[in-house]
TrEMBL record:
Chain intervals for the UniProt region annotation (Disordered): 392-413
Protein name: VWA domain-containing protein
One Pfam family, short name: VWA
Gene3D superfamilies to which the protein is assigned, alphabetical: von Willebrand factor, type A domain
Domain VWFA: 43-215
SUPFAM superfamilies, per the entry: vWA-like (SSF53300)
Amino acid sequence: MRVGLQAALSDENLDATQASSQRQLAISLSALPEAGGRTAPLNLCLILDHSGSMKGRPLETVKQAAHRIVDSLSPDDRLSIVVFDHKAKVIVTNQVVENPAAIKLEINKLQPSGGTAIDEGMRLALEELATGRKDAVSQAFLLTDGENEHGDNDRCLKLAKLAADYSITLNTLGFGDNWNQDVLEQIADAGGGSLSYIQRPEEAISEFARLFTRIQSVGLINAHLLLNLTPKVRLAELKPIAQVVPDTIELPVIQENGQAIVRLGDLMIDAPRIVLANLYVHQPKPGTYAIAHVQVRYDDPITGQTDLLSERIPVEANALQDFQPAVNPQVQQHVLALAKYRQTQIAETKLQQGDRAGAATMLQSAAKTALQMGDQGAATILQDNATRLQAGEELTESDRKKTRIASKTILQP
């Protein structure tokens, strides 16, 4: 398995008469299988909330979704299941699924009770995943419907970062309307996974299935982007690099030996991650030349090889004395996706500060941005919520969660 790597500037032409030019660099990364190649086995842990608030249909549909996961696993895949209320326990230890009926029996025994301690569930899950992570794709699905009332949110974030350090990806699923979107988003972002919203119980099965299909396509793990800039080229000082596909996430950058390093995590087959870097090119001299080089460091779970390097590709620009723009429309779409996310973030901040008019204005801007990029679903959600605020209405918890998801992803019609 190797890395598919492509890079494109928002406009490959630079104005040589200007002291400085700003450009967005879109970098696409995916896993490319060899002919007749296979993917590594999964090492999956389900971390399930069975607190008292999950009583009735919610818990029953989660059990059904877990059953479907058990049935979908391949012979070499491994599974563990951790459940939590105000405490946590392992109900299925990390194992190859040789007896699906026995595992389903343990799932069926789950009863709603107690409060919510997410971090304890995460801690036990990491212990289980650690026993099966060799030469495997390690993933966790964390589902909860409530606040971490018996736990520590800071500890959750530390555990998510620890998971990433061990190439374990954490995906979070918020069930209903009473979970904390800030905490679950931070866990997913730090853990290299995605945030999902299950608004109604019947959506649990399809959302679990969607996530499972996504993790089945993981080909390479622990990927890091290595970005080398030529002299007189620099990254923006504030929020210089973000992921825009499949989810929008602001990415931390480490500077090491003159190189910008960004951890990306898993690379999928036929579903690229796309990263956007904000660059400034100072005093470009006329001519065509490389302003940057990109490369990827990664691990191959099939072979067990680590710290492999992809090809190193140049990013070329044309500095013109008589400037003519050459805008790349695909990169522009990615720029709009990031703008939509950041505009929505500003709206949420203004709403928290009590500035309802400011929040409504920013949501309208985000809705217009979504329309520009053809994301009708997000545009509808964002505009509806702006209209509610302008009418003096309060946004419900459901409205806020839909807004968060609409800001981070392109909603499917």
